[in-house]
Amino acid sequence: MLLMKQKILISIVGATAIGKTTRSIALAKYFKTEIISSDSRQFYKEMCIGTAVPSEDELKQVQHHFIHNRSIFDAYSVGDFERDALIKLDQLFKEHPIVVMVGGSGLYVDAVINGLDDFPKVDPTIRKNLKKEFEDKGMHALQMQLKELDPVTFQKIDIDNKQRVIRALEICIGTNKPYSSFLKNKESARRFKTIKIGISADREIIYNRINIRVDQMIANGLMEEAKKLYPNKNLNALQTVGYRELFQYFDEEITLDFAISEIKKNTRRFAKRQNTWFKRDPDILWFDYQEKNTSIAASIQELLNNKKYT
């Protein structure tokens, strides 16, 4: 065990399907520690195939936290996760000098590492009006409105997530300022230091891996899983790529082939936004997706020898 006064959180990020789960398990084994998931959809126990949760074998190799610990019927916000994750980290750091966190949900990662931003209260009727606009005009109208009012946020958030788009718009409209203008640069006080590791690949490689993963999900029973969830399709947790498109197929709005192609397309768009989000952080140390685990571990070990972490 490393002898360090400072507790260390190793945060592993990157686009979907890039191989973060495999890396996190390898590094957790190397440092003899446990893993916190910061994937905002892997929290929900009813969602398995479509969220690419670690396999039973992977979960047995290393102790994971925040995997299938909630129900889709539970209200659970990024603020709730920040609170719960910090409590869990305090517990884990009593036994381990290092803990690994993995996930591609940038907002949830930032909440744990930096803390959440403070936004002013706005008139609740704005949200009501935006929801009505969504019902009348659809998602595209809200997306275009956000692109006009706050192009910075439009490029960073998951613009297919209705709740996120409406939240950003209500701040823009209620304050007459961009949502992004309220994002703070100062980090909240934390009782640990963070080493940020990013896994990357050329766009064509990421897109190909996504296409293969989606095909595998369909083969593994994603349609059957989505069918079980279909009666609850309006829940916020289910406004997720992979389920949303199949719900449209069940509603007979699109064909199955088109639904699958839309899942691939929307997942690729999501991966692009993930990369945009993480590439803005100059503190992330990037590695190619084919880099050996021993090489990544050695780079982390070198950082740990720095006085900043001892």
Q: How does CATH name the architecture of the largest domain?
A: 3-Layer(aba) Sandwich
Gap between N and C termini = 13 Å
- Helix-strand string: EHEHEHEHHHHHEHHHHEH
| Computed CA radius of gyration, to the nearest angstrom | 20 Å
CATH topology of the largest domain: Rossmann fold
User: Count the helices. How many?
Assistant: 13
- Largest sheet features: 6 strands, parallel
Low-confidence stretches: none
Task: Give the CATH superfamily of the largest domain.
Answer: P-loop containing nucleotide triphosphate hydrolases
Number of strands: 6
CATH class of the largest domain: Alpha Beta
Content-based structural category = alpha/beta
Taken as a percent bin, the fraction of beta residues is: 5-15%
Please supply descriptive tags for the structure shown above.
310 residues; alpha/beta; Rossmann fold; Histone, subunit A; 2 domains; six-stranded parallel beta sheet; 50% helix; 9% strand; globular
Question: What report would you give on this structure?
Answer:
There is one protein chain. This protein has helices at 20-30, 56-61, 78-93, 106-114, 124-137, 139-149, 151-156, 162-175, 203-219, 222-229, 244-250, 256-279, 293-304; strands at 8-14, 35-37, 64-65, 98-102, 193-200, 285-288. The mean pLDDT is 93. Strands 3-2-4-1-5-6 form a 6-stranded parallel sheet, sandwiched between helices. It is of the alpha/beta class. The chain has 2 domains: 8-117 and 184-309, 3-Layer(aba) Sandwich (Rossmann fold); 124-182, Histone, subunit A (Orthogonal Bundle). The two termini are 13 Å apart. It has 13 helices and 6 strands. The chain is globular.
